[in-house]
Amino acid sequence: MFAGTGSDVGKSILAAAFCRIFRQDGYQPAPFKAQNMALNSYVTPEGLEIGRAQAVQAEAAGIPCHTDMNPLLLKPQSDHTSQVVLHGKPMGSKDAYDYWRKRGGRGDESEERIDYRQEVCGAYDRLASRYNPIVMEGAGSIAELNLRSTDLVNLPMARYAHADVILVGDIDRGGVFASVYGSIALQTPEDRQLIKGIIINKFRGDMRLFDEGRTILEDICGIPVLGVIPYFKDIHIEEEDSVALAQKQYSAERGKVNVAVVLLRHISNFTDFDVLERDLRVNLFYTSNTTELSRADIIILPGTKATLDDLLELRRNGCAQAILRAHREGRMVIGICGGYQMLGQTIDDPEGIEGSVASLPGLGLLPIHTTMAAEKKTRQVTFLFEGQPCSGYEIHQGVSDTTETILQTDHCIGTYIHGFLDNAPVIEHLLKDFTTEGPTGAPFDYQAFKEEQYNLLAQHVRRHVDMERFYQILKED
Question: Is residue 319 annotated as part of the catalytic site, yes or no?
Fold first, then answer.
Protein backbone atom coordinates (compact mmCIF):
# COMPACT_ATOMS: atom_id res chain seq x y z
CA MET A 1 0.00 0.00 0.00
CA PHE A 2 1.16 3.49 -0.87
CA ALA A 3 -0.16 5.62 1.97
CA GLY A 4 0.33 9.35 2.38
CA THR A 5 1.19 12.09 4.81
CA GLY A 6 -1.57 14.08 3.09
CA SER A 7 -3.54 14.59 -0.10
CA ASP A 8 -1.77 15.17 -3.43
CA VAL A 9 1.59 13.80 -2.25
CA GLY A 10 1.78 11.47 -5.25
CA LYS A 11 0.21 8.21 -4.06
CA SER A 12 -1.81 7.67 -7.26
CA ILE A 13 1.15 8.30 -9.55
CA LEU A 14 3.42 6.00 -7.54
CA ALA A 15 0.77 3.28 -7.56
CA ALA A 16 0.58 3.60 -11.35
CA ALA A 17 4.37 3.47 -11.57
CA PHE A 18 4.58 0.26 -9.57
CA CYS A 19 1.71 -1.31 -11.52
CA ARG A 20 3.87 -0.82 -14.62
CA ILE A 21 7.10 -1.87 -12.86
CA PHE A 22 5.57 -5.12 -11.57
CA ARG A 23 4.15 -5.82 -15.02
CA GLN A 24 7.58 -5.24 -16.58
CA ASP A 25 9.10 -7.60 -14.02
CA GLY A 26 6.80 -10.44 -15.01
CA TYR A 27 4.08 -10.19 -12.35
CA GLN A 28 0.32 -9.75 -12.80
CA PRO A 29 -0.48 -6.68 -10.70
CA ALA A 30 -3.79 -4.93 -10.16
CA PRO A 31 -4.60 -1.63 -8.42
CA PHE A 32 -6.95 -1.26 -5.47
CA LYS A 33 -8.34 1.71 -3.58
CA ALA A 34 -11.13 0.77 -1.20
CA GLN A 35 -12.69 4.23 -1.13
CA ASN A 36 -11.98 7.12 -3.45
CA MET A 37 -13.32 10.68 -3.41
CA ALA A 38 -13.14 12.31 -6.83
CA LEU A 39 -15.22 13.94 -9.54
CA ASN A 40 -13.09 12.44 -12.31
CA SER A 41 -14.38 8.94 -12.97
CA TYR A 42 -14.34 6.30 -15.68
CA VAL A 43 -16.58 3.55 -17.01
CA THR A 44 -15.52 -0.10 -16.95
CA PRO A 45 -16.17 -2.45 -19.91
CA GLU A 46 -19.26 -3.62 -18.01
CA GLY A 47 -20.63 -0.07 -17.96
CA LEU A 48 -19.96 0.60 -14.26
CA GLU A 49 -18.28 3.61 -12.65
CA ILE A 50 -14.93 3.79 -10.83
CA GLY A 51 -12.41 6.47 -9.93
CA ARG A 52 -10.28 7.64 -12.84
CA ALA A 53 -7.02 6.96 -10.96
CA GLN A 54 -7.75 3.24 -10.68
CA ALA A 55 -8.59 3.10 -14.40
CA VAL A 56 -5.22 4.71 -15.14
CA GLN A 57 -3.44 2.30 -12.79
CA ALA A 58 -5.18 -0.68 -14.43
CA GLU A 59 -4.01 0.62 -17.80
CA ALA A 60 -0.46 0.82 -16.43
CA ALA A 61 -0.85 -2.77 -15.25
CA GLY A 62 -2.07 -3.81 -18.71
CA ILE A 63 -5.44 -5.13 -17.57
CA PRO A 64 -9.09 -4.05 -18.00
CA CYS A 65 -10.43 -1.90 -15.17
CA HIS A 66 -13.06 -3.37 -12.85
CA THR A 67 -15.19 -2.09 -9.98
CA ASP A 68 -13.35 -4.37 -7.55
CA MET A 69 -10.38 -2.03 -8.01
CA ASN A 70 -12.40 0.83 -6.51
CA PRO A 71 -15.55 -0.57 -4.90
CA LEU A 72 -16.55 2.67 -3.18
CA LEU A 73 -16.49 6.05 -4.94
CA LEU A 74 -17.66 9.32 -3.36
CA LYS A 75 -18.49 12.15 -5.77
CA PRO A 76 -18.85 15.48 -3.92
CA GLN A 77 -22.00 17.44 -4.75
CA SER A 78 -21.61 20.22 -2.20
CA ASP A 79 -19.59 21.01 0.93
CA HIS A 80 -21.82 18.63 2.89
CA THR A 81 -23.06 15.89 0.55
CA SER A 82 -21.64 13.34 -1.86
CA GLN A 83 -23.08 10.83 -4.25
CA VAL A 84 -22.09 7.34 -3.12
CA VAL A 85 -21.20 4.89 -5.89
CA LEU A 86 -20.91 1.30 -4.65
CA HIS A 87 -19.59 -1.40 -6.99
CA GLY A 88 -20.04 1.00 -9.89
CA LYS A 89 -23.69 1.90 -9.19
CA PRO A 90 -24.97 5.10 -7.52
CA MET A 91 -26.61 4.55 -4.14
CA GLY A 92 -27.92 8.11 -3.74
CA SER A 93 -26.61 11.19 -1.98
CA LYS A 94 -25.36 10.98 1.59
CA ASP A 95 -24.84 13.67 4.17
CA ALA A 96 -21.15 13.76 5.13
CA TYR A 97 -21.84 13.48 8.85
CA ASP A 98 -24.23 10.59 8.41
CA TYR A 99 -21.86 8.81 6.08
CA TRP A 100 -18.81 9.07 8.31
CA ARG A 101 -20.49 8.72 11.68
CA LYS A 102 -23.58 6.62 11.18
CA ARG A 103 -22.89 4.96 7.83
CA GLY A 104 -26.52 5.66 6.94
CA GLY A 105 -28.24 7.78 4.31
CA ARG A 106 -30.40 10.87 4.43
CA GLY A 107 -33.47 8.82 3.69
CA ASP A 108 -36.06 7.00 5.71
CA GLU A 109 -34.98 5.72 9.14
CA SER A 110 -35.87 2.24 7.96
CA GLU A 111 -33.34 2.46 5.12
CA GLU A 112 -31.18 -0.62 5.23
CA ARG A 113 -27.69 0.25 6.32
CA ILE A 114 -24.84 -1.06 4.22
CA ASP A 115 -21.74 -2.61 5.77
CA TYR A 116 -19.26 -0.72 3.63
CA ARG A 117 -16.26 -2.36 5.27
CA GLN A 118 -17.57 -5.79 4.35
CA GLU A 119 -18.23 -4.61 0.80
CA VAL A 120 -14.73 -3.22 0.20
CA CYS A 121 -13.04 -6.20 1.82
CA GLY A 122 -15.06 -8.54 -0.37
CA ALA A 123 -13.93 -6.60 -3.44
CA TYR A 124 -10.32 -6.88 -2.32
CA ASP A 125 -10.65 -10.63 -1.81
CA ARG A 126 -12.06 -11.13 -5.30
CA LEU A 127 -9.28 -9.03 -6.82
CA ALA A 128 -6.54 -10.77 -4.85
CA SER A 129 -7.79 -14.16 -6.06
CA ARG A 130 -7.11 -13.07 -9.65
CA TYR A 131 -3.98 -10.90 -9.47
CA ASN A 132 -0.68 -10.69 -7.61
CA PRO A 133 0.59 -8.34 -6.29
CA ILE A 134 -2.23 -5.96 -5.43
CA VAL A 135 -0.97 -2.37 -5.52
CA MET A 136 -3.07 -0.59 -2.94
CA GLU A 137 -3.54 3.15 -2.53
CA GLY A 138 -4.49 4.97 0.63
CA ALA A 139 -6.43 8.23 0.79
CA GLY A 140 -5.37 11.61 2.13
CA SER A 141 -3.41 11.42 5.37
CA ILE A 142 -3.06 8.24 7.41
CA ALA A 143 -3.12 10.31 10.60
CA GLU A 144 -6.70 11.63 10.62
CA LEU A 145 -7.32 10.48 14.19
CA ASN A 146 -10.94 11.65 14.30
CA LEU A 147 -11.80 9.31 11.43
CA ARG A 148 -9.82 6.29 12.58
CA SER A 149 -12.84 4.29 13.73
CA THR A 150 -14.57 4.65 10.35
CA ASP A 151 -11.51 4.53 8.08
CA LEU A 152 -12.02 2.03 5.27
CA VAL A 153 -9.08 2.84 3.03
CA ASN A 154 -5.82 3.38 4.94
CA LEU A 155 -4.25 1.30 7.73
CA PRO A 156 -7.38 -0.73 8.58
CA MET A 157 -7.49 -1.89 4.96
CA ALA A 158 -3.76 -2.60 5.04
CA ARG A 159 -4.27 -4.69 8.17
CA TYR A 160 -7.00 -6.69 6.47
CA ALA A 161 -4.86 -7.31 3.39
CA HIS A 162 -1.64 -7.95 5.37
CA ALA A 163 -0.09 -5.28 3.18
CA ASP A 164 3.35 -3.74 3.48
CA VAL A 165 2.81 0.01 3.72
CA ILE A 166 5.09 2.53 2.03
CA LEU A 167 4.59 6.05 3.40
CA VAL A 168 4.80 8.81 0.78
CA GLY A 169 5.79 12.34 1.81
CA ASP A 170 5.79 15.46 -0.39
CA ILE A 171 8.96 17.49 0.19
CA ASP A 172 7.85 20.20 -2.26
CA ARG A 173 5.16 21.50 0.09
CA GLY A 174 7.59 21.73 3.02
CA GLY A 175 7.56 20.20 6.49
CA VAL A 176 8.40 16.72 5.25
CA PHE A 177 10.27 15.66 8.42
CA ALA A 178 7.36 16.60 10.68
CA SER A 179 4.72 15.12 8.39
CA VAL A 180 6.55 11.79 7.94
CA TYR A 181 7.58 11.41 11.58
CA GLY A 182 4.21 12.59 12.86
CA SER A 183 2.25 10.30 10.53
CA ILE A 184 4.17 7.30 11.86
CA ALA A 185 4.20 8.37 15.52
CA LEU A 186 0.42 8.85 15.59
CA GLN A 187 -0.29 5.26 14.56
CA THR A 188 -1.17 2.50 16.99
CA PRO A 189 1.74 0.13 17.73
CA GLU A 190 0.03 -2.51 15.56
CA ASP A 191 -0.35 -0.20 12.58
CA ARG A 192 3.15 1.23 13.00
CA GLN A 193 4.53 -2.24 12.35
CA LEU A 194 2.88 -2.28 8.92
CA ILE A 195 4.88 0.74 7.68
CA LYS A 196 7.97 -0.79 6.08
CA GLY A 197 9.44 2.07 4.06
CA ILE A 198 9.36 5.78 3.23
CA ILE A 199 9.45 7.46 -0.17
CA ILE A 200 10.13 11.19 -0.40
CA ASN A 201 8.40 12.58 -3.47
CA LYS A 202 8.62 15.76 -5.59
CA PHE A 203 12.21 16.72 -4.73
CA ARG A 204 13.63 19.76 -6.52
CA GLY A 205 17.33 20.59 -6.81
CA ASP A 206 20.55 18.72 -6.11
CA MET A 207 19.72 15.29 -4.67
CA ARG A 208 22.95 15.27 -2.64
CA LEU A 209 21.52 18.01 -0.44
CA PHE A 210 19.10 15.48 1.04
CA ASP A 211 21.65 12.77 1.86
CA GLU A 212 21.75 13.87 5.51
CA GLY A 213 17.95 14.17 5.49
CA ARG A 214 17.59 10.51 4.55
CA THR A 215 19.81 9.49 7.44
CA ILE A 216 17.93 11.70 9.90
CA LEU A 217 14.55 10.31 8.83
CA GLU A 218 15.73 6.73 9.11
CA ASP A 219 17.17 7.41 12.57
CA ILE A 220 14.11 9.14 14.03
CA CYS A 221 11.52 6.87 12.35
CA GLY A 222 13.38 3.56 12.48
CA ILE A 223 12.15 2.87 8.93
CA PRO A 224 14.24 2.87 5.73
CA VAL A 225 13.94 5.65 3.17
CA LEU A 226 13.57 3.63 -0.02
CA GLY A 227 13.88 6.53 -2.41
CA VAL A 228 13.85 10.26 -3.07
CA ILE A 229 12.01 10.90 -6.33
CA PRO A 230 12.65 14.16 -8.21
CA TYR A 231 9.80 16.36 -9.35
CA PHE A 232 9.02 15.88 -13.03
CA LYS A 233 7.13 17.86 -15.66
CA ASP A 234 7.97 15.93 -18.82
CA ILE A 235 6.05 12.73 -18.02
CA HIS A 236 2.31 13.00 -18.62
CA ILE A 237 -0.02 10.77 -16.60
CA GLU A 238 -3.75 11.57 -16.40
CA GLU A 239 -4.58 13.35 -13.16
CA GLU A 240 -7.66 12.61 -11.09
CA ASP A 241 -7.53 15.28 -8.42
CA SER A 242 -8.81 18.79 -9.18
CA VAL A 243 -5.67 20.07 -7.40
CA ALA A 244 -3.96 19.43 -10.75
CA LEU A 245 -6.03 22.23 -12.30
CA ALA A 246 -3.98 24.76 -10.32
CA GLN A 247 -1.02 23.97 -12.58
CA LYS A 248 -2.93 24.56 -15.81
CA GLN A 249 -2.68 27.55 -18.16
CA TYR A 250 -5.26 30.25 -17.40
CA SER A 251 -4.99 32.75 -20.27
CA ALA A 252 -5.07 33.16 -24.04
CA GLU A 253 -1.87 33.16 -26.09
CA ARG A 254 -1.04 34.76 -29.40
CA GLY A 255 -0.17 32.63 -32.40
CA LYS A 256 -2.15 29.55 -31.38
CA VAL A 257 -5.74 28.35 -31.48
CA ASN A 258 -7.04 29.43 -28.09
CA VAL A 259 -9.39 26.90 -26.52
CA ALA A 260 -11.05 28.01 -23.28
CA VAL A 261 -12.50 25.44 -20.91
CA VAL A 262 -15.03 27.17 -18.66
CA LEU A 263 -13.82 26.66 -15.10
CA LEU A 264 -16.95 25.43 -13.34
CA ARG A 265 -17.10 25.13 -9.55
CA HIS A 266 -18.05 21.43 -9.82
CA ILE A 267 -15.99 20.57 -12.91
CA SER A 268 -15.57 16.84 -13.51
CA ASN A 269 -13.63 14.66 -15.93
CA PHE A 270 -11.21 17.39 -17.00
CA THR A 271 -9.06 14.60 -18.44
CA ASP A 272 -11.37 15.06 -21.45
CA PHE A 273 -8.98 17.79 -22.59
CA ASP A 274 -5.59 16.07 -22.19
CA VAL A 275 -5.18 15.21 -25.88
CA LEU A 276 -6.24 18.64 -27.13
CA GLU A 277 -3.89 20.23 -24.61
CA ARG A 278 -0.95 18.33 -26.14
CA ASP A 279 -1.65 19.54 -29.68
CA LEU A 280 1.13 22.02 -30.55
CA ARG A 281 -1.33 24.14 -32.53
CA VAL A 282 -3.49 24.71 -29.46
CA ASN A 283 -3.30 26.82 -26.30
CA LEU A 284 -5.86 25.27 -23.96
CA PHE A 285 -6.67 27.17 -20.79
CA TYR A 286 -9.23 27.11 -17.96
CA THR A 287 -11.05 30.27 -16.98
CA SER A 288 -14.22 31.81 -15.58
CA ASN A 289 -13.01 35.28 -16.55
CA THR A 290 -15.27 36.86 -19.17
CA THR A 291 -12.41 38.85 -20.72
CA GLU A 292 -10.38 35.70 -21.27
CA LEU A 293 -13.44 33.92 -22.69
CA SER A 294 -13.79 36.73 -25.22
CA ARG A 295 -10.28 35.96 -26.49
CA ALA A 296 -10.98 32.28 -27.15
CA ASP A 297 -11.44 30.78 -30.60
CA ILE A 298 -13.26 27.76 -29.13
CA ILE A 299 -15.16 27.62 -25.82
CA ILE A 300 -15.85 24.31 -24.08
CA LEU A 301 -18.42 23.79 -21.34
CA PRO A 302 -17.13 20.69 -19.52
CA GLY A 303 -18.80 18.05 -17.40
CA THR A 304 -20.02 18.92 -13.93
CA LYS A 305 -21.37 17.11 -10.90
CA ALA A 306 -23.90 19.90 -10.25
CA THR A 307 -25.33 21.07 -13.58
CA LEU A 308 -28.06 23.38 -12.26
CA ASP A 309 -25.86 24.96 -9.61
CA ASP A 310 -23.08 25.63 -12.13
CA LEU A 311 -25.57 26.99 -14.65
CA LEU A 312 -26.80 29.47 -12.04
CA GLU A 313 -23.21 30.49 -11.36
CA LEU A 314 -22.55 31.02 -15.09
CA ARG A 315 -25.41 33.50 -15.20
CA ARG A 316 -24.25 35.22 -12.01
CA ASN A 317 -20.60 35.67 -13.03
CA GLY A 318 -21.32 36.75 -16.62
CA CYS A 319 -19.87 33.68 -18.32
CA ALA A 320 -23.25 32.71 -19.81
CA GLN A 321 -23.53 36.05 -21.55
CA ALA A 322 -19.89 35.84 -22.73
CA ILE A 323 -20.50 32.38 -24.22
CA LEU A 324 -23.63 33.56 -26.06
CA ARG A 325 -21.81 36.63 -27.35
CA ALA A 326 -18.91 34.50 -28.62
CA HIS A 327 -21.37 32.19 -30.40
CA ARG A 328 -23.10 35.14 -32.06
CA GLU A 329 -19.71 36.28 -33.31
CA GLY A 330 -19.20 32.93 -35.00
CA ARG A 331 -16.94 31.18 -32.53
CA MET A 332 -17.31 27.46 -31.80
CA VAL A 333 -18.98 26.41 -28.54
CA ILE A 334 -18.80 22.79 -27.37
CA GLY A 335 -20.66 21.18 -24.48
CA ILE A 336 -19.74 17.82 -22.96
CA CYS A 337 -22.05 15.95 -20.58
CA GLY A 338 -23.32 18.55 -18.08
CA GLY A 339 -22.03 21.25 -20.40
CA TYR A 340 -24.12 19.72 -23.18
CA GLN A 341 -27.22 19.91 -20.97
CA MET A 342 -26.51 23.59 -20.23
CA LEU A 343 -26.43 24.40 -23.95
CA GLY A 344 -30.01 23.16 -24.37
CA GLN A 345 -33.37 24.90 -23.93
CA THR A 346 -34.29 23.78 -20.41
CA ILE A 347 -33.09 21.62 -17.53
CA ASP A 348 -35.79 20.28 -15.21
CA ASP A 349 -35.20 18.57 -11.87
CA PRO A 350 -38.70 17.77 -10.58
CA GLU A 351 -37.48 15.14 -8.09
CA GLY A 352 -34.74 17.33 -6.61
CA ILE A 353 -31.96 14.99 -7.73
CA GLU A 354 -29.40 17.81 -7.66
CA GLY A 355 -30.95 20.06 -5.05
CA SER A 356 -33.68 22.62 -4.50
CA VAL A 357 -33.71 24.25 -7.98
CA ALA A 358 -36.61 22.65 -9.88
CA SER A 359 -35.98 24.10 -13.34
CA LEU A 360 -33.75 26.50 -15.26
CA PRO A 361 -33.60 27.72 -18.84
CA GLY A 362 -30.46 26.63 -20.64
CA LEU A 363 -28.30 28.79 -22.90
CA GLY A 364 -30.56 27.90 -25.83
CA LEU A 365 -27.88 26.97 -28.37
CA LEU A 366 -29.07 23.39 -28.90
CA PRO A 367 -32.63 22.09 -29.43
CA ILE A 368 -32.76 19.75 -26.44
CA HIS A 369 -34.67 19.61 -23.17
CA THR A 370 -33.17 17.68 -20.24
CA THR A 371 -34.88 16.13 -17.23
CA MET A 372 -32.76 14.98 -14.29
CA ALA A 373 -33.34 11.38 -13.26
CA ALA A 374 -32.16 9.22 -10.39
CA GLU A 375 -30.80 6.56 -12.71
CA LYS A 376 -27.29 7.19 -14.00
CA LYS A 377 -26.24 6.16 -17.50
CA THR A 378 -22.76 4.64 -17.66
CA ARG A 379 -21.41 2.87 -20.71
CA GLN A 380 -18.50 2.71 -23.14
CA VAL A 381 -19.45 3.82 -26.66
CA THR A 382 -18.18 3.77 -30.22
CA PHE A 383 -19.32 6.26 -32.84
CA LEU A 384 -18.53 7.58 -36.30
CA PHE A 385 -17.26 11.11 -36.80
CA GLU A 386 -16.51 12.39 -40.29
CA GLY A 387 -16.92 8.76 -41.35
CA GLN A 388 -14.16 7.52 -39.05
CA PRO A 389 -14.52 5.20 -36.04
CA CYS A 390 -14.14 6.86 -32.63
CA SER A 391 -14.71 5.85 -29.01
CA GLY A 392 -15.48 7.26 -25.58
CA TYR A 393 -17.74 6.70 -22.58
CA GLU A 394 -20.84 8.14 -20.95
CA ILE A 395 -21.40 8.98 -17.27
CA HIS A 396 -24.42 11.17 -16.68
CA GLN A 397 -27.67 11.70 -14.86
CA GLY A 398 -30.41 13.36 -16.84
CA VAL A 399 -32.27 12.36 -19.98
CA SER A 400 -32.36 14.63 -23.04
CA ASP A 401 -35.10 14.40 -25.66
CA THR A 402 -32.88 13.39 -28.56
CA THR A 403 -31.55 10.13 -29.93
CA GLU A 404 -28.45 11.82 -31.34
CA THR A 405 -25.13 10.80 -29.77
CA ILE A 406 -23.63 14.04 -31.00
CA LEU A 407 -25.78 17.09 -31.75
CA GLN A 408 -24.42 19.80 -34.06
CA THR A 409 -25.78 23.18 -35.14
CA ASP A 410 -23.96 26.21 -36.53
CA HIS A 411 -20.83 26.76 -34.44
CA CYS A 412 -22.09 24.48 -31.68
CA ILE A 413 -21.53 20.81 -30.77
CA GLY A 414 -23.02 18.95 -27.83
CA THR A 415 -22.43 15.39 -26.66
CA TYR A 416 -22.67 13.17 -23.60
CA ILE A 417 -19.47 11.37 -24.64
CA HIS A 418 -16.44 11.78 -22.39
CA GLY A 419 -13.27 11.15 -24.35
CA PHE A 420 -14.91 12.81 -27.37
CA LEU A 421 -11.82 15.00 -27.81
CA ASP A 422 -9.43 12.05 -27.55
CA ASN A 423 -10.27 11.21 -31.16
CA ALA A 424 -8.13 12.66 -33.97
CA PRO A 425 -11.05 13.12 -36.43
CA VAL A 426 -12.84 15.31 -33.89
CA ILE A 427 -9.79 17.47 -33.21
CA GLU A 428 -9.04 17.95 -36.91
CA HIS A 429 -12.65 18.98 -37.52
CA LEU A 430 -12.44 21.59 -34.76
CA LEU A 431 -9.12 23.05 -35.87
CA LYS A 432 -9.58 23.05 -39.64
CA ASP A 433 -11.01 26.59 -39.75
CA PHE A 434 -8.29 28.06 -37.56
CA THR A 435 -5.03 26.75 -38.95
CA THR A 436 -3.69 25.79 -42.34
CA GLU A 437 -1.23 23.43 -40.73
CA GLY A 438 -2.44 19.93 -40.16
CA PRO A 439 -0.77 17.52 -37.78
CA THR A 440 2.75 16.65 -38.87
CA GLY A 441 3.45 13.01 -39.61
CA ALA A 442 1.10 10.21 -38.61
CA PRO A 443 -2.10 10.96 -36.63
CA PHE A 444 -1.54 11.28 -32.90
CA ASP A 445 -1.88 7.85 -31.30
CA TYR A 446 -3.07 8.59 -27.77
CA GLN A 447 -2.89 4.98 -26.63
CA ALA A 448 0.71 4.64 -27.80
CA PHE A 449 1.52 7.97 -26.14
CA LYS A 450 0.10 6.75 -22.82
CA GLU A 451 2.07 3.51 -23.03
CA GLU A 452 5.24 5.50 -23.55
CA GLN A 453 4.44 7.71 -20.55
CA TYR A 454 3.86 4.71 -18.26
CA ASN A 455 7.23 3.30 -19.31
CA LEU A 456 8.95 6.65 -18.73
CA LEU A 457 7.31 6.88 -15.30
CA ALA A 458 8.46 3.38 -14.38
CA GLN A 459 11.98 4.21 -15.56
CA HIS A 460 12.01 7.43 -13.51
CA VAL A 461 10.86 5.67 -10.32
CA ARG A 462 13.27 2.74 -10.79
CA ARG A 463 16.14 5.21 -11.11
CA HIS A 464 15.42 6.80 -7.74
CA VAL A 465 14.03 3.95 -5.62
CA ASP A 466 16.15 1.15 -4.17
CA MET A 467 14.26 -1.61 -5.99
CA GLU A 468 16.37 -4.41 -4.53
CA ARG A 469 15.51 -3.27 -1.01
CA PHE A 470 11.88 -2.73 -2.04
CA TYR A 471 11.53 -6.30 -3.28
CA GLN A 472 13.33 -7.60 -0.19
CA ILE A 473 10.68 -5.98 2.01
CA LEU A 474 7.92 -7.68 0.03
CA LYS A 475 9.62 -11.06 0.32
CA GLU A 476 10.19 -10.85 4.08
CA ASP A 477 6.55 -11.73 4.73
Answer: no
